[in-house]
Amino acid sequence: MLSLNKIEYKRENIYETNRCNRNELKKGILLNTKSGDKTNSMTIAWGQIGIEWGKLFFTAYIRHGRFTHEQIEASKEFTVSIPLNQEQRKAVSKAIGYIGSRTGRNIDKLNDMNLTVIEGIKVKSPAVKELSLTLECKVIYKQEQEQNNMPEDIIKSCYPEKP
């Protein structure tokens, strides 16, 4: 698994918006990529926002072998689209489930769910119009996550394929 740390540009001020919280993340948000002419979206329920080197960061964890990982490796950027209210959450709940259960390698998941793709402002990765908070992110640091350094209970509960 690769830990990808990114800096973001926001459409809304995340400090003032403070509605992007752990509860929304646990319910699933969308991480979007674009490489060449191919866009992709992945449901994530993990990640964090923080400060590193005096800059605002979003850290995401994406396993090798995921199409999203390939897209980010090629483009060095992505967006994170987050619902800010119950109306938005309700409008995309089915899409978040669909997007989280399929690879985008051979299908267009956002189009399949009738979500509106809009261009990023500072990055080529798209935003999702139906979700009003978008973090535009560029990869500035990445590191392998060492599972053998994790507590046994986390390995068992989050990585069941590992012996």
Query: Can you list the strand order of the major beta sheet?
Result: 3-2-6-9-1-5-4
Q: If helices are DSSP runs of H or I spanning 4 or more residues, what is the number of helices?
A: 6
CATH architecture: Roll
Share of residues in helices: 25-40%
CATH fold-type name? Pnp Oxidase, Chain A
> Distance between termini?
16 Å
**CATH class category name:** Mainly Beta
CATH homology superfamily? Electron Transport, Fmn-binding Protein, Chain A
Main beta sheet strand tally, sense and closure: 7 strands, antiparallel
Average predicted confidence as pLDDT: 83
Overall strand count: 9
- Strand content is 35-45%
User: What is the count of distinct domains?
Assistant: 1
In N-to-C order, the SSE pattern is EHHEEEEHEHHEEEH
Low-pLDDT stretches are 1-12, 15-19
Q: Regarding quaternary structure, how should these chains be classified? A: single chain
The helix/strand class is alpha+beta
Cα gyration radius (Å): 15 Å
What is the overall shape?
Answer: globular
